[in-house]
Write a structure and sequence with these properties.
The complex is a heterodimer.
Chain A (H helix, E strand, L loop, with lengths): L1 E12 L2 E12 L3 E5 L6 H8 L7 E6 L2 E2 L4 H8 L2 E4 L10 H11 L6 H10 L15 H13 L5 E5 L7 H18 L2 E5 L3 H7 L2 E6 L2 E7 H6 L4 H7 L6
Parallel strand pairs in A: 3-8, 3-9, 6-7, 7-8
Antiparallel strand pairs in A: 1-2, 1-4, 4-5, 9-10
Helix pairs in contact in A: 3-5, 4-5, 5-6
Chain B lengths: L1 H35 L5 H11 L4 H12 L14 H37 L4 H11 L1 H17 L2 H7 L9 H10 L3 H31 L1
Classes of the chains: A alpha/beta, B mainly alpha.
């Protein structure tokens, strides 16, 4: 069964068509990567899948429920998924309170243990009582991961979640994503510019270019024997578009 | 003389403090709403609000004078030349400032925090609360500027208060009177008191603001 299904998603900003009737299907429990150059429309697609932005046309179905793009109507569905952006922000409160935020908005008052495990998972227990706004880039991204997963979402969407981070933090976050998916059976959709990362963690990869998905296949096949010449050029680092 | 000075000082604090409270209770919710909502004509509202920052106090005083005078529509309330009229005049001048600065603070904070709250499962009410909470430093600044405007105001309170001794005389109007009578030293001393009140208020608000930044 598909955890994420997008049909005919189109989106334009002014005269610029960013997404051109995109079809995408991510199986339940898959770790799916979307690769592609900047400006391909990857982030816009993720924002539409997360209900942060409505498409001009097309439909999005998450966990069998179609997004309406009406805030109150989509709330129960949004609460079953999560999103981590390239530049997450911390609320002006402690790391512990930041991570507890999703529990508070769900009315879960006794979530101390959940917060503890989420912080432990990303190695942030020592910084639990520090202010979120004082964290370094890597720590902030790890906190964002803990905050996004503390309530065990079934679908996790990541937008360049390790961009600009050092190898230590990249490794830590990749491990956290892989183990979260394994432990909870969650579906993970990630957008990355880091081809090595897609190779390392994703079981399925799609190549996106100029608002369309050029090719989608098992990650090994995308990198070793791509069907489309443009995909081949991109994964070989030739970028001759 | 001393009791007169105390009376003038206390009345200044009372009038400006009440006006700031009243203005803030109207302007903060309105500023938050305008800062968070997207609607047609928002730019126009913003431009009008910013224009009203420079609303001449004497004009505000004159409008209020006409409304409150015996022949005016609110004449029956008998508020002209009372501290209430002075509070209303200052409120009128402070409201646009607090609206505008609150709106700026909230709109600057709004997009990122709104999206983060939504992503993490907040409903619209909770999202609004989060955004306002995160914009609190800017909102406190708005109140501080508003109080500064109220405290320093002279034209409007002179018109609707009448500068009546023991009744509607505040520090700014007393300074005008002393200057007219050639008592420059006394006028300057009153100015020093005015500045001291402002300084104490800003110091307290700054402490609260710093606390807001850290917690």
């Amino acid at each position: 069964m598909s955890a994420i299904k997008a049909r005919g998603i189109s989106k334009s900003f002014g005269n610029r068509c960013v997404l051109k009737a995109i079809d995408l299907e991510v199986e339940e429990g898959d770790l799916f990567a979307i690769i592609g150059p900047s400006g391909a429309g990857k982030t816009t697609l993720l924002r539409i899948l997360c209900s942060l932005q409505p498409p001009d046309s097309g439909t999005v179905t998450i966990l069998g429920k179609q997004m309406s793009y009406r805030e109150a109507e989509d709330l129960p569905l949004r609460r079953r998924m999560s999103f981590i952006s390239q530049k997450p922000i911390a609320f002006r409160e402690t790391v512990r309170e930041n991570v507890a935020y999703p529990l508070r908005v769900r009315g879960i008052e006794n979530g101390n243990e959940m917060v503890y495990h989420a912080l432990q998972h990303v190695g942030l227990l020592d910084l639990a009582d520090n202010l979120g706004v004082t964290l370094s880039g890597g720590e902030l991204q790890r906190m964002a991961f803990a905050r996004a997963t503390v309530y065990n979402p079934e679908v996790l969407i990541l937008d360049e979640f390790t961009a600009h981070l050092d190898p230590y933090n990249i490794k830590m976050l990749e491990d956290a994503v892989v183990s979260y998916r394994k432990e909870k059976g969650a579906t993970v959709l990630t957008v990355t510019h880091n081809l090595f990362q897609a190779k390392r963690i994703a079981s399925t990869t799609a190549f996106m270019l100029d608002g369309v998905i050029v090719e989608q296949n098992e990650t090994a096949r995308i990198f070793n024997s791509p069907a489309d010449e443009r995909t081949g050029s991109f994964v070989r680092g030739e970028m001759i578009f | 003389m001393e009791s007169d000075l105390l009376n003038v000082t206390l009345l200044s604090i009372l009038v400006s403090g009440t006006a700031t409270l009243l203005a803030s209770s109207i302007a903060i919710p309105l500023g938050c709403y305008l800062g968070m909502r997207k609607f047609k004509g928002k730019e126009l509202v913003r431009t009008v609000t910013y224009t009203l920052y420079g609303f001449p106090p004497v004009v505000a005083g004159l409008v209020l004078y006409i409304l409150l005078s015996n022949s005016g529509p609110l004449g029956s309330l008998q508020l002209l030349f009372t501290p209430i009229a002075m509070i209303l005049a200052q409120t009128l001048l402070v409201v646009p400032i607090v609206i505008g600065l609150t709106m700026s603070a909230v709109s600057t904070t709004s997009k990122d925090y709104t999206e983060t709250a939504i992503i993490l499962g907040a409903d619209s009410w909770r999202t609004a609360r989060t955004v306002i909470h995160e914009a609190r430093i800017g909102i406190i600044s708005a109140v501080m500027v508003g109080f500064g405007r109220a405290l320093a105001e002279v034209g409007a309170v002179m018109l609707v208060g009448g500068n009546i001794q023991w009744h509607t005389r505040v520090l700014t109007t007393a300074i005008v009177l002393e200057t007219r009578e050639g008592n420059f030293e006394y006028g300057l001393a009153l100015g020093a008191i005015l500045l001291t009140i402002g300084m104490v208020f800003f110091y307290l608000m700054k402490r609260y603001q710093d606390k807001g930044m850290l917690t």
